[in-house]
Amino acid sequence: MDLGLKGKKAIVCASSKGLGKGCAMALAQEGVDLVINSRSADALEATADEIRKATGATVTPVVCDVTTEEGRAAVLAACPNPDILVNNAGGPPPGDFRDWDRDDWIKALDANMLTPIFLIKAIVDGMIERKFGRIVNITSGAVKAPIDILGLSNGARTGLTGFIAGLSRKTVRHNVTINNLLPGPFDTDRLKQTMAGAAKAAGKSVEEIAKARAANNPAGRFGTPEEFGQACAFLCSAQSGFITGQNLLLDGGAFPGTL
């Protein structure tokens, strides 16, 4: 299927590796020109070069922390009028809410709720004027099935989800859609970090924990950044204009519900 994206411009946040990189690569394969960002210059340039060689797309790397005002300004200066925005940022650390102070909560809200909102605010009116826009927020499966030790993430990402539920119903009339992708267990550095913590707590090897977790998923495996990116690309497509305000859970069937 031709997704109708050739020649479009996209900002893909936190995209030097993992799910962000998967989204950037999938969009580039559809002929989208990219602005990608990361705090790591070496990893970002390597990813930009990899995408260019694989797809021929124009890729502009911006080294910055997108969760800061300065970082967002740098990304928007590189692409002030994107057709596509993929919001993404690393999740806050796990822990017990009794140990978190106000600064911990503000940092989580800045990264996983307010940064996406401020980027949307900066670009959505231009999308409305041009009668095309696709915004995808990478949140978490924990929005649908909260994980007790990820309270900071549960709270911040659920706040974003509630905000998007309202805004997305206003923009769709102008062919500007806003949706959320909720990853479950994907083979990323974030998953490896959480499994390392679980392995230490259980006195087991990371390999043992990984094998057990993969086997317990209905799919019998972890997801890949590539298939996550393809789902993102479809939500950004010309054909997806009637899909908005949705939370698409990609978890291999782990959530045991009917809705």
Percent strand equals 5-15%
Radius of gyration using CA atoms only:
18 Å
Which segments are poorly predicted (pLDDT under 50) over 5 or more consecutive residues?
A: none
Q: What's the overall average pLDDT, rounded?
A: 96
**Residue share in helices?**
40-55%
Give the N-terminus to C-terminus distance in angstroms: 28 Å
**Number of E-type strands:** 7
Shape call: globular
Order of helices and strands: EHEHEHEHEHEHHHE
Largest sheet composition: 7 strands, parallel
State the helix count.
8
Question: Strand order across the biggest sheet?
Answer: 3-2-1-4-5-6-7
What would you call the structural class? alpha/beta
Summed up:
Helices cover 47% and strands 14% of the residues.
Structural write-up:
The chain has 8 helices and 7 strands, in the order βαβαβαβαβαβαααβ. With 259 residues, it is α/β, with parallel strands linked by helices. A 7-stranded parallel β-sheet has the order 3-2-1-4-5-6-7, with helices on both faces.
Give structural attributes.
alpha/beta, 259 residues, globular, 8 helices
Compile the SSE list and pairings.
Elements: E1 9-12, H1 18-29, E2 33-38, H2 41-55, E3 59-63, H3 69-78, E4 84-87, H4 102-130, E5 133-138, H5 151-171, E6 176-183, H6 189-202, H7 206-216, H8 225-235, E7 247-250
Parallel strand pairs: 1-2, 1-4, 2-3, 4-5, 5-6, 6-7
Helix pairs in contact: 1-2, 1-8, 4-5, 6-7
